[in-house]
Specification:
The chain has 34 residues and is mainly α. It has one domain. It is built from one helix and no strands.
Length: 34
């Protein structure tokens, strides 16, 4: 269902989750931003 915009939603949520868990567990995401 990517054509229905669900791919965009998943991308936004994944980014927010990475930031949340990085802050919660005091770890940094190992890769650089593109």
């Amino acid at each position: 269902m990517i054509e229905a915009g669900e791919g965009d939603y998943a991308l936004k949520v994944a980014g927010r989750l990475l930031e949340f868990f990085a802050n919660k567990f005091d770890i940094s995401y190992p890769l650089t931003k593109m």
